Amino acid sequence: MESNECSSISNNNIICSNNNNNGLFPLSMMNTTRYYNDGDIQFRPLEIDDYDKGYSALLCQLTEAKFTKSQYIERYNQMKKELDNYYVVVVEDKSKSKIIGTGTLMVEKKFIRGCALCGHIEDIVVDSTYRGKNLGLKMIEQLKYIGTLVGCYKLILDCDENNVKFYEKCGFVKKQAMMALYLPPQPKL
Ligand SMILES: CC(=O)SCCNC(=O)CCNC(=O)[C@H](O)C(C)(C)COP(=O)(O)OP(=O)(O)OC[C@H]1O[C@@H](n2cnc3c(N)ncnc32)[C@H](O)[C@@H]1OP(=O)(O)O
Questions:
Q1: H or E stretch at 167
Q2: Residue 13 in contact with ligand 1 by CB distance below 6 A
Q3: What is the pTM of this model?
Q4: Which of 38, 48, 94, 146, by CA, is between 20 and 30 Å from 109?
């Protein structure tokens, strides 16, 4: 399939291949992985220039997420060394050069179940002015698609009670309980 040639998948969503190798995505998967693309609204891997397109501000709509451009570049380059572990997808409104959505698939390598891969869905957020347009749903579909390509046997996530219905609409079911322990900050090694 040529770059940007579209093909339909379930629910009539349109996805396009993306062979831009500047993004946070393994080169080996670049030419075969397809992304939702609807006019100016484009899904793609996170790129190093996305800090300037409002990536930090978008994450601040999810939680405390203020970081400088140099912190962003340092973390981006760390992730780039572990391309099999991190699949950070963003949605850009090309008409505004603005990042309006993001979501991450983190792939955990396990010993159990025949050294299986477990996918963790993390840091899903859609800009408040773009909510209710199925972009969150499409982001989860995109991550499910990548998780399937990578070979994850399941996808799991933690969320607030008020987002349970959203994830149920995305096909997830409630299981067990979420627990957390926050550790005291330590000086950097
Ligand atoms: C693992 C994690 O990262 S959990 C963190 C989740 N992120 C946040 O809480 C950040 C703030 N919230 C957001 O960014 C967004 O509201 C999201 C990501 C939760 C949803 O994104 P949206 O683009 O608005 O959702 P989308 O339009 O795709 O909704 C799909 C369906 O779910 C429904 N839905 C969306 N959010 C909710 C909700 N909180 N409660 C109930 N239903 C919901 C929609 O009504 C829609 O239903 P429909 O198909 O019957 O019309």
A1: helix 164-169
A2: no
A3: 0.90
A4: 48
